[in-house]
Design brief:
Length: 280
């Protein structure tokens, strides 16, 4: 009997000692089996509690996430915090005034200028086509350009029907009737007569403003003028941009709306209006 009490006391002490291990995330239980009343077999079973395992590391990671969130909040507050307004310098305001006035006056000139070419400014020359007229097409960014290239026996430099003159050409009749070896009459500017064989800094060809064969004209000069006038209406768009920019050259205090936002909004609305008008 004394032996049994001692065993029970030992078990209680062992269990009390093991229960304290739960604080460090380890739970242990001790079971005792008596074999043949002589040998005492003691089995210790230890199980790690995964929920509380590495509790120190989990707490550390939790705190680091909290710190990161707080850091992000502080960064956002810093970014959203309004910077003190710094007025534009006098030189910057003068630059805005100059650019806006340039936009206005140059655009008004392009919009109201006379795009017709009077007959007294043109001269007619007779040439023989060395090759069949060649249609050329090329792109600059997203814009497609088309030309008609004419090679003659009399002049070394090529002639080109391009731009609005190309659009005013009767292409079906031109392709059917203007062939290699034909004698045609070309209309060119009088100011360019002396430079028909000289390459210039601007181009290496001669502009043609009219072409006829056997008294039949294949370029409608009046239609060319109408198309040029219609195309020049886009200049009004830049007039509006210049007028929008102009007040910012005189404003010294903080404007209610920044200039870049106003220009962007004006450009979007203006392009939409011009696109609609061009389709009418």
């Amino acid at each position: 009997m004394p032996t049994t009490d001692k065993q029970i006391t030992t078990e209680e002490e062992g269990r009390t000692h093991n229960s304290g291990l739960a604080k460090v995330a380890v739970q242990c239980s001790a079971d005792t089996f008596v074999v043949n009343q002589t040998f005492v077999l003691r089995i210790n079973i230890c199980v790690k509690n995964a929920t509380f395992a590495n509790s120190q590391n989990v707490t550390s990671n939790f705190m680091s996430r909290q710190e990161r969130r707080q850091s992000q909040r502080n960064r956002q507050k810093t970014l959203t915090k309004k910077k003190p307004y710094e007025p534009e310098s006098k030189g910057a305001r003068i630059f805005v005034i100059v650019i806006s006035l340039t936009f206005v006056f140059v655009s008004l000139y392009l919009a109201f200028r006379d795009n017709s070419i009077p007959d007294n400014e043109l001269s007619t020359i007779s040439v023989t086509l060395k090759e069949t007229p060649k249609y050329d097409e090329y792109k600059i960014k997203s814009t497609t350009y088309r030309d008609i290239i004419l090679t003659t026996k009399e002049q070394k430099r090529e002639f080109k029907i391009t731009g609005m003159t190309y659009k005013a050409t009767d292409h079906n009749a031109f392709k059917a009737n203007v062939l290699v070896g034909d004698k045609v009459k070309l209309k060119v500017k009088k100011t360019e007569l002396e430079n028909l064989n000289e390459n210039t800094f601007w181009n290496n060809y001669n502009d043609v403003y009219g072409l006829s064969k056997d008294g039949i004209s294949y370029v409608n000069i009046e239609l060319r003028t109408e198309l040029t006038d219609k195309d020049s209406k886009w200049s009004y768009f830049f007039v509006i941009i210049g007028l929008v920019m102009l007040p910012y050259g005189f404003i010294k205090s903080r404007p209610l709306i920044s200039m870049d936002k106003v220009i962007t909004a004006t450009a979007v609305v203006g392009l939409i209006i011009m696109f609609i008008v061009s389709r009418l």
